[in-house]
């Protein structure tokens, strides 16, 4: 796998953070449709790498995901950096990353600092129901009640401090997202529009 490369000057990155099932991927798809961002899902990239028979990291990724744990950041940042270079774009939505404070610092130092963090704030019970519903058809090894509970615990202990870190830098926009997809997007859209002003 190619190494981590710093993003060119003028690259715009928005981190989309939120608990498992808060709607990150769904909202990113709507932003991509309206604003032309390239959407990179850390989870999707890891699952893709996990299925790649030539990957030297596949088995390692598999064991972390299956256990609801966070994959070592060097692997995730390498995958994100590679996709950013391949895309030839300079505007990115990265969802499900960073999941720990050291990942945030590592990405900022080695790739680029984010200009904005969208934090999708959702009740645990709502997220659980969404994930169980998705699990009926997703085929994902982490959409089961045992792993979901582990993921909630990891999110609370390790990912919420990332949001708090960026709040100190006044980069976080908190979006309540228990409502429908369209209602949540109505709150997000003006924030993205405001970036160009």
Automatic annotation (TrEMBL):
Region (NMPbind) residue ranges read 41-71
Q: Where does a ribonucleoside 5'-phosphate bind?
A: 47, 69-71, 96-99, 103, 140, 151
Binding positions (ATP): 21-26, 134, 179
Q: So which domain of life are we looking at?
A: Eukaryota
Write the record's keywords in alphabetical order, separated by commas. Answer: ATP-binding, Cytoplasm, Kinase, Nucleotide-binding, Nucleus, Pyrimidine biosynthesis, Transferase
Q: What class of enzyme is it?
A: transferase
**SUPFAM superfamilies assigned to the protein according to its UniProt record, in alphabetical order:** P-loop containing nucleoside triphosphate hydrolases
Q: Which NCBIfam families match?
A: UMP_CMP_kin_fam
Q: How does it assemble?
A: Monomer.
Q: Which PANTHER family match?
A: NUCLEOTIDE KINASE
Protein name in the entry: Uridylate kinase
What organism does the record attribute this protein to? Gigaspora rosea
């Amino acid at each position: 796998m190619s190494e981590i490369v710093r993003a060119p000057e003028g690259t715009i990155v928005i981190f989309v953070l939120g608990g498992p099932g808060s709607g990150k991927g769904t909202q990113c798809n709507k932003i991509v449709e309206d604003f032309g961002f390239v959407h990179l899902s850390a989870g999707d990239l890891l699952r893709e790498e996990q299925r790649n028979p030539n990957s030297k990291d596949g088995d390692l990724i598999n064991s972390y995901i299956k256990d609801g744990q966070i994959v070592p950041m060097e692997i995730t940042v390498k995958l994100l950096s590679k996709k950013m270079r391949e895309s030839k774009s300079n505007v990115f939505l990265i969802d499900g990353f960073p999941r720990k404070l050291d990942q945030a610092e590592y990405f900022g130092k080695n790739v680029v600092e984010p200009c904005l963090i969208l934090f999708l704030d959702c009740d645990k019970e709502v997220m659980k129901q969404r994930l169980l519903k998705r699990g009926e058809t997703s085929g994902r090894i982490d959409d089961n009640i045992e792993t979901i509970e582990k993921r909630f615990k990891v999110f609370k202990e390790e990912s919420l401090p990332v949001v708090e870190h960026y709040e100190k830098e006044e980069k976080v926009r908190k979006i309540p997202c228990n409502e429908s997809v369209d209602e949540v997007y109505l709150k997000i859209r003006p924030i993205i529009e405001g970036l160009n002003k």
